[in-house]
Amino acid sequence: MNSVIAFIVIFGALVFFHELGHFVFAKRAGILCREFAIGMGPKVLAFKKNETQYTLRLLPIGGYVRMAGEDAELMELKPGFRAGLILGQDEKVEKVVLNNKDRYPDLRVIEVAEAELEKELYIKGYEEGEDTLQRFELSEKAVFIEDGVETQLAPWNRQFNSKKLHQRFLTIFAGPAMNFVLAFIVLSIIGMSAGIPVDRAVLGDIVPGDPADQAGLEKGDEVTAISGEEISTWADLTGIVSASPGEEITIDVQRGEETLSFEVTPEERTFEQGDETISQGIIGVYNPRIESPSIFQSIQYGAEQTYFWTVTIFDLLGDLITGQFSIDALAGPVGIYKSTEEVAKAGIYQLMQWGAILSINLGIMNLLPLPALDGGRLLFFGFEALRGKPIDRQKEGMVHFVGFALLMLLMIVVTWNDIQRYFL
């Protein structure tokens, strides 16, 4: 249950902050945001505040901000259609009732002759029993009611595609960017709360019952050599220990004025990497840390770690592109859940770091110039800037549709690999 909760919290945070980036910059640009959704599929929870409906959906495979104009606007009033109008004090139409008109008293029912619902915002028609054509001005926040469901009108100036190129660019870019911001904040909090690791060959906390504890090593021991090989950094220490699972090694340490030697056999730990099973040696020690660092040190640590993991993920992505990793090395929701389950056993700080790494990974993946991803949309904005006019929306939509289908196919393949790896 703890693993399930950890997975839901991490997934929810990653998606929430990603979509929050889109949402905030869309609102700043004046775009009507119809829905802010976490998850996909059927609604589990929904409420509306101001112009936006906030929903929690069943399937934990993403989220979205539905902005006016990204899809074809569904509201249409054709000539001959009968509509009920509710006017406000300024004599502008505030509500347009499309059916079940008997539920709304005091409607002005008209037969529509002409309607312009994007730029000029008017409806022309004949009221019942009259032959005079009348023009009714629409409020910019007018709503259309069909089967009891209200849908707000989206004037052209509130639609995504009406905005300047830089506003659309920032709205899309803000999603992945927010994932990097989240990672930076989380890693800075880790540095502030748990201390900042120092790259010195000095032992930090010792895990009770693990090989280092059993051999007699203590916190504060400075490692000078391992099996005759001189040691000066924490990376040197972990490199040798990791490469020696099940092999006895001699660790020389300086403890105060004493020079001591200990025989330690690293415990073997294994993990899956694609089709390979990787073995590592573990002795159960943590690296030393700066206790109670300053805010500046914590911020610096957060920035350095964000940069480190960004570069590391790009390197792994390069290996995947060049064929050094196979598709089996990729993990989907099932694989991420299983990894989260293992990381959760190590403690809250390791879980927070894992969440930060996933956030950076999500940001990078979304910035890839692939159709249906944020990076693909940014690429089309780049073409628009070079051409001086937008790409045909139908052609762009078809490219994104094909890209989305291929991504869903990849998701199915990766998820099936995860199921085989962990459950079959």
UniProtKB/TrEMBL annotation:
Q: Has the keyword Disulfide bond been applied to this entry?
A: no
The family database entries (InterPro entries) matched by this protein are listed as: PDZ, PDZ_6, PDZ_sf, Pept_M50_Zn, Peptidase_M50
EC number(s): the record gives 3.4.24.-
Residues that span the membrane, as ranges: 169-190, 397-416
Annotated compartments: Membrane
Please cite one Gene Ontology biological process associated with this protein: proteolysis
GO molecular function terms noted in the UniProt entry: metal ion binding; metalloendopeptidase activity
According to UniProt, the name of this protein is Zinc metalloprotease
Organism of this sequence: Jeotgalibacillus malaysiensis
